[in-house]
Amino acid sequence: MTNSRRDSLICLTIAAGSTASGVYFAVHTSWLCLLGFYSAALLLWCASRLNADHQRQIAAHEQARGEAGADAPPLTPCCQFWTASKGEVHGADCTRTRRSSAA
User: How many domains are contained in the chain?
Assistant: First the structure.
């Protein structure tokens, strides 16, 4: 778990609390609910950006690992599905063994 993923989960937790407070204030005092909903929306946006940063860090790690020769993909495409999906999906007639998912 990267720091970005941890911070993303924290933002999601606080956004849930902000949404709950927005609902509470919507029932009791109508104009104060805007603060809760606005902060929840802002925290959800921050969480999505942090999650994207987490995905970039994971991709960079996998690329560096591949460049080191630990899990190098083949130099030639093994099937048509492999070409279209950048190595993630394989066709039924593919002769290459599938990658193990160790994420």
Answer: 1
